[in-house]
Write a structure and sequence with these properties.
This protein has 269 residues and is an alpha/beta fold. The chain has one domain: 3-Layer(aba) Sandwich (Rossmann fold). It is 42% helix and 14% strand. The chain contains seven helices and seven strands. The chain has a seven-stranded parallel β-sheet with strand order 3-2-1-4-5-6-7, with helices on both faces. Helix 5 links the parallel strand 5 and strand 6. The longest helix has 29 residues. The protein is globular, with a radius of gyration of 18 Å. The two termini are 29 Å apart. The structure holds nicotinamide-adenine-dinucleotide (NAD). Nicotinamide-adenine-dinucleotide (NAD) binds next to helix 1 and helix 4.
Length: 269
């Protein structure tokens, strides 16, 4: 028997590079995307490039991010790779300086770098495991933000996007530090949005559901479990990148302090 909504599933062809007659909605804009070597971050970088932005692709894995930037840079020539450890404030500061040196401005920051948590009980894990998850998944979105804000204030505006998770709303079998960090990003987005409104800096969080093909590989049992509660199906990273495009381009001009649930119905509200 066919699952309800099974007919809705389709493979996304992925973003299309505009032809020479198109003008991308992000033409002239400069974005930094952390965690851009692979997965959701790579998909966001690609869609921003497709829509005309220049992008600093930043990641801890320099070899992979360099390869990604080289690959994406062929049609766009606006992609630059940078090594960053987002859990380290000084590394994040150097990344912000790098985008200014490279492109002279920064309009959009997407905090996407993150790590999965071990599946065990938090109270049975070493303290350093808790600290590492909070350092990367929560503080690792704050340090780049903290260092980019003064430049956006001087420039008269900007967009900051946090990649949270449905794990902010409900437990998903992961280490609770991950849930706490992802919920913290929502608090950060909402509070910062109020603080930065007077400077025309719009701050939002995107709350992805499981992509199915990025992050930690899923077992067959996990995949079947997810598909049974996702009538729209697992669709990879592209829907999340589309949401980040919506927030970054003029369509997002009147949106701040929101949490955009992009989870294929995995959670509601
Ligand atoms: N995969 C999912 O289903 C899913 C669901 C909800 C939320 N998310 C969130 O989306 C984001 C991206 O997830 P993904 O699935 O693409 O993961 P991924 O593991 O495929 O990619 C994460 C990237 O972040 C980089 N990274 C890790 N630690 C870093 C650090 N300290 N400094 C700089 N870069 C670092 C990695 O090298 C990697 O390239 C994460 O924040 C994740 O928590 C993912």
């Amino acid at each position: 028997m066919k699952r309800p909504g099974a007919g809705l599933r389709r493979q996304s062809p992925g973003p299309r590079f505009p032809s020479s007659s198109d003008v991308g909605d992000l033409a002239g804009k400069v974005a930094v995307v952390t965690g851009a070597a692979q997965g959701i971050g790579l998909s966001i970088a690609r869609i921003y490039l497709c829509h005309g932005a220049s992008v600093l692709l930043a990641d801890l894995n320099y070899r992979a991010v360099k390869e990604a930037a080289t690959r994406l840079g062929k049609p766009a020539a606006r992609a630059v790779a940078w090594k960053v450890d987002v859990s380290d404030s000084s590394s994040a500061k150097s990344m912000v300086q790098a985008v200014l040196d490279q492109f002279g401005r920064v309009d959009i920051l997407v905090n996407c770098a993150g790590i999965d948590s071990p599946m065990g009980r938090a109270w049975e894990e070493p303290d350093k495991s808790w600290r590492r998850i909070i350092d990367v998944d929560l503080n690792g979105s704050w340090w780049p933000t903290r260092h980019v804000i003064p430049h956006m204030i001087t420039a008269g505006g900007g967009r900051i996007i946090f990649i949270s998770s449905v794990a902010a709303r409900e437990w998903s079998g992961t280490h609770v530090a991950y849930n706490a960090a992802k919920a913290g990003l929502i608090g950060l987005a909402v509070a910062l949005a109020s603080e930065l409104e007077p400077h025309s800096i719009l701050v939002n969080a995107v709350m992805p559901g499981p992509t199915g093909d990025t992050g930690r590989p899923l077992s067959d049992v996990e995949r079947a479990g997810l598909e049974s509660r996702m009538p729209l199906g697992l669709r990879g990273a592209d829907p999340i990148a589309q949401a980040c495009l919506y927030l970054a381009q003029p369509s997002g001009d009147w949106i701040t302090g929101t949490v955009l649930n992009v989870s294929g119905g995995y959670v509601k509200g």
